[in-house]
Amino acid sequence: MNNAKINLVAADMGYGHQRAAYPLMDIASGNKIISINNYEGVPAWEESYWKNSLKSYEQISRLKKIPLLGGLVFAIMDAFQKIDPFYPIRDLSKPTTQEKFFYRVVKKGLGKDLVEKLNKSNLPFLTTFFVAAYFAEAQNYKGDIYCVICDTDASRSWANLDSKDTRVIYLLPSEKVRERFMMYGVPEKNLIVTGFPLPKENIGENQEIIKNDLAVRLHLLDSKGVYFEKYSSLIKNYLPEKIVTRPLTITYAVGGAGAQKEIGLTILRNLKDKIVSGTLAVNLVAGNRPEIKKYFEDGIAELGLDTNVNIKVIFDADKIEYFKKFNQALRTSDILWTKPSELSFYCALGLPIIISSPVGSQEDFNREWLINMGAGIDSYDPEHVEDWLPDLLESGRLARAAMDGFLNAETMGTYNIEKLFNK
């Protein structure tokens, strides 16, 4: 039985907005995420608008790796959504070009149909996509409006056009982002620091799941016992004793646009001996993209490897089912290798992040956050992973990153958000 507390609204574009919404489905009307670009009855012109927008973004993201022209085209697009440096503290309330562009479409009626439908429910409107917050307010949604921030920092475009007189309540990942939104002119009363919503099946109401999983992981990440020797009292204070009975496992996740998929096969090729010997397992995350799944499976076959032996391709055509499979795979993963997307927050699960090249301004800030947190390590050349990965394991650096993420990043964001609606 659904205990509906909110209308949960996201955008079905890439993974970030829906991944942030997924952990909140327990309190959502119908236990579902409403996607602004493909909900039942979406006006044809809106559906077409969002399809064209997504297609353009994905094409430009893939273009980035083409020398000169590709980089230039991406840089122009990224300039519209860039995040200004945090310091000095100053007034950043002036709306951006990107924001004005979206508001022109909102004035034409973007989101009006959805708002009219949802107004019948008398539930708060909670979204993980800033444009939905724009139109909820502009199209006169009757209830309270909440917006979850999906990166470790956010551009001005995440705050509504009239930021000083908005009624949107922002649910923020950190105190620093609260200060950022105050620079954008958002009233302090509209800002609540909750932490990013992480999957409850990886945490546990009292952190029992995350602590058990991390206790096993630390043994595998600290192959020489260097970290345990230095910090055994700290570990014992937080984690139970666990026996290790599985191979070290790397999970490599591709972004929604399919960028950087080639790194997954590079990992397999250069660590093939360890995979065959059973000392290493690898998960390749294809998400809900069948073409990425085929790319991985073809590459695995060409390398003479087998998906039944220490290699898994994580895929489901249904995005929600994919999230479930991915979250389950993380429980027995020891390293998460990915670009610094919204998955940066998953370091809070006690997963060290090997950071591949950022795509876009927000990912540059996510990378910086991971480094400052001590939870992320920039990837060295994947072609030489067989040389540098053992060094990271033997030094205890990956074990330290796992523990730093767990200790320093907020793990309870989902529970904190739920509490707001369970009063």
**Strand percentage:** 5-15%
> What's the level 1 CATH class of the largest domain?
Alpha Beta
Extract low-pLDDT stretches.
none
Write out the CATH superfamily name of the largest domain. Glycogen Phosphorylase B
Radius of gyration: 22 Å
CATH architecture grouping of the largest domain: 3-Layer(aba) Sandwich
Order of helices and strands: EHEHHHHEHEEHEHHEHHEHEHEEHEHHH
Structural class by SSE content? alpha/beta
CATH topology of the largest domain: Rossmann fold
Count of all domains = 2
Total helical elements: 17
Strand order of the largest sheet: 2-1-3-4-5-6
Helix content: 40-55%
Describe this structure in words.
This protein folds into two domains: 7-197, no CATH class; 201-408, Rossmann fold (3-Layer(aba) Sandwich), CATH 3.40.50.2000. The strands form two sheets. The protein has a six-stranded parallel beta sheet with strand order 2-1-3-4-5-6. It has helices at 16-21, 44-63, 69-79, 97-107, 112-118, 130-138, 175-183, 208-221, 226-238, 262-270, 272-277, 290-302, 319-331, 361-373, 385-394, 397-408, 413-420; strands at residues 7-10, 34-35, 125-127, 145-148, 168-172, 191-193, 248-253, 280-287, 311-315, 335-338, 353-355, 376-378. It has 423 residues and is an alpha/beta fold.
